Amino acid sequence: MTKKNYNVLGVMSGTSLDGADIARFELAENNGVWDYEIYEADTIPYTKEWVERFKNAVDFSETQLQQLNEEYTALLGKMISDFIASHSISGLDAICSHGHTVLHQPHNGITLQVGNLPELATLINVPVVCNFRVQDVALGGQGAPLVPIGDRLLFSDYEYCLNLGGFSNISFEEGGNRIAFDICAVNTVLNHYANRLGYPYDAGGSIARGGRINPVLLDRLDALPYYALPYPKSLGFEYVKSTILPLMEEYNIQTEDKLRTFTRHIARQVAFVLHKRKSANVKMLVTGGGAYNTYLIESMRNLLPEVEIVIPDDKTIQYKEALIFALLGVLRLRNEVNVLSSVTGADRDHSSGYIYTL
């Protein structure tokens, strides 16, 4: 008989590069309805060396990628084991881990999340479910975004779920299908320019707030071809490196001005998606690190006065993606659909992820 309650860890490392999110969740299913509780939760920061390795991995050789995979699997194993020990956690059903994306080129049939080697289960001594994207790309999908199944099952009170992480992505129901796609880069670009000024990120958007918008750069950003593409579609750090940053570097303006211009660009692209759908009197849940960027949220509210933008509690903001990967892992253990073809463009809905037992 299928279990109804699961005690699992969700582990997520995103393109913002702020660290590995690790949290314990209880997931419960009752007649097809899912509920959750968030318990212990930490973000374990990466060293400067690891941040640089992740940033440069897009240019690594195959041998370098293999070494990175092995070493990151070992690092992640230690992080998770230390988390379990420090919180005296026991009775886990599984570790559900996303790994860290270093290559994402679905049009070439490529997606690579390091930290998903079988040794991870041995290092932690707990079954592991991981590597959720590979099967979807093999089935002709984008391999992303994967979060929308969780938006549907856990956050159905909201018409829209927006995540502001390394990239912004949105999900919603349309014609009985869950639709989702990446909108634009967010913290992958904002953090890059905050780093130039000696800060890990632009806290609250205060640096951007002090800058000036460059209207020519803003218009060129808004005119990038990606935004006119139909969904399903997704973005990776390769796009930031090959397209966004070179465009912004054409402009010899203050870094503060680049931050303000790009923050407005993010808000405009989010607003464009909702205006296109003629959305009014709806609720939109906003999570991810960008939810703390008060200047960005103000900019979105100014452009979307007809939308109720809801910022939830801190744990939900910070650990929603870890929560949903925990759910993806549980659905995989139950051999139930955890990837939606309406979102990724794959040949069919499917149950994705590798299961490593002891």
Descriptors for this entry?
single chain; 358 residues; alpha/beta; 5-stranded mixed beta sheet; 12 strands; 40% helix
Q: Name the quaternary structure.
A: single chain
Low-confidence stretches: none
N-to-C CA distance: 22 Å
Tally of helical runs: 13
The coarse silhouette is globular
Largest sheet: 7 strands, mixed
What is the element string, with H for helices and E for strands? EEEHHEEHEHHEEEHHHHHEHEHHE
Based on secondary structure, the structural category is alpha/beta
Mean pLDDT: 96
Question: Rg to the nearest angstrom?
Answer: 20 Å
Helix content, binned percent: 25-40%
What's the β-strand tally?
12
- What is the beta-strand fraction? 15-25%
Description:
The relative contact order is 0.18. This protein is globular. The longest helix is centred in the N-terminal third of the chain and has 25 residues, at 62-86. β2 and β3 form a beta hairpin. It has 13 helices and 12 strands. It has helices spanning 48-56, 62-86, 119-124, 134-138, 148-154, 187-196, 206-209, 215-222, 237-249, 255-276, 294-303, 314-333, 341-344; strands at residues 5-13, 20-30, 33-44, 94-105, 110-114, 128-130, 160-164, 167-174, 177-185, 282-287, 307-310, 354-356.
